[in-house]
């Protein structure tokens, strides 16, 4: 072994020991290139999802039914912007460049969650998104609070606290509507019918079709498989739907006493593939809006850069 090989071997050993001890990898630590790349891709996709996720609900800000609902929705959409910012910062600690990540998003080279390519057609969708979409996000993200990469795990702790408020505001909105008129109840059911399957797809493809999962689990980046998390979400959501008085559009949904879990049908994975490929109802608009916002913000970035340069000059 040459000196460099020996050094490499020791670094890898110390990384493996840190992962095995369930301790945290920090930005200053040596890490395998694959680990760094996987994390940058995952954190960037997550950040993009938070930022793009502002659009479906932002669509209803000017048409909220009351001042109270408007204030709640505005706070929620702002929280999502904050989540995006923490996550871009976490990606930067791995050496990623934020401008480059944004460029990859608006040129379609990096993805965001498929769920945000569905339209929001009624105000009930604000409630359903809070309940089911933020609910699915919580199932996905709570285990990430134990992710092996320190900055990501710490960002997730705050994000999850805020997500649980998002879920509650959604459920509270739906509860209020269910106590209203027949028309409002029908509006809630129609919204749940549209969002149930896309929410299940948020956990990603089935385990046997999720090639990168195994390595991510070994690295402690991911803690549970897609199918485990999906099952957990179904088990959690069914009693909530019963309490609310809505049903899910799945004839196969039934309690299985033997397994101690709900059985449920198979999502339409061909629809998922199409949406991920860019052929969902809203893909083109979501990216166009994000691109326009980025271009409109160019003067702000220029001004901030010029200001920072002058400050540095002044403090020399
Ligand atoms: Fe969020
Ligand atoms: Fe949220």
Automatic annotation (TrEMBL):
Gene3D superfamilies: 1.20.1260.10. Coiled coil: none annotated. GO terms for molecular function: phenylacetyl-CoA 1,2-epoxidase activity. This is Putative phenylacetate-CoA oxygenase, PaaG subunit. InterPro entries: Aromatic_CoA_ox/epox, Ferritin-like, Ferritin-like_SF, PaaA, PaaA_PaaC. GO terms for cellular component: cytosol. One of its GO terms (biological process) is phenylacetate catabolic process. It comes from Gordonia polyisoprenivorans (strain DSM 44266 / VH2).
């Amino acid at each position: 072994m040459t000196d460099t090989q020996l050094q490499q071997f020791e670094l890898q050993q110390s990384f493996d020991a840190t992962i095995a001890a369930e301790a945290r990898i920090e930005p200053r630590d040596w890490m395998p290139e694959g680990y760094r790349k996987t994390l940058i891709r995952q954190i960037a996709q997550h950040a993009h999802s938070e930022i793009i996720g502002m659009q479906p609900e932002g669509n209803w800000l000017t048409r909220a039914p009351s001042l109270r609902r408007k204030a709640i929705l505005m706070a929620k959409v702002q929280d999502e912007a904050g989540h995006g910012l923490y996550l871009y910062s976490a990606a930067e600690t791995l050496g990623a460049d934020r401008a480059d990540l944004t460029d990859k998003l608006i040129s379609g080279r990096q993805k965001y969650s498929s769920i945000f390519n569905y339209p929001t057609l009624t105000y009930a969708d604000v409630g359903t998104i809070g309940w089911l979409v933020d609910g699915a996000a919580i199932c996905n993200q709570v285990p990430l609070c134990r992710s092996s990469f320190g900055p990501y795990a710490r960002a997730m702790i705050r994000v999850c606290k805020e997500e649980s408020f998002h879920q509650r505001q959604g459920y509270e909105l739906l509860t209020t509507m269910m106590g209203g008129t027949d028309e409002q109840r029908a509006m809630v059911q129609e919204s749940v019918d549209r969002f149930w399957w896309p929410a299940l797809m948020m956990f990603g493809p089935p385990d046997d079709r999720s090639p990168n999962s195994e390595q991510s689990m070994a690295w402690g980046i991911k803690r549970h498989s897609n199918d485990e998390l999906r099952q957990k979400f179904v088990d959690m959501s069914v009693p909530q739907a019963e309490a609310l008085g809505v049903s899910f559009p799945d004839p196969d949904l039934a309690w299985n006493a033997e397994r101690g879990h709900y059985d449920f049908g198979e999502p339409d994975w061909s629809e998922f593939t199409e949406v991920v490929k860019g052929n969902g109802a809203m893909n083109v608009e979501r990216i166009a809006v994000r691109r326009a916002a980025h271009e409109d913000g160019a003067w702000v970035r220029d001004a901030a850069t010029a200001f920072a340069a002058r400050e540095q000059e002044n403090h020399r």
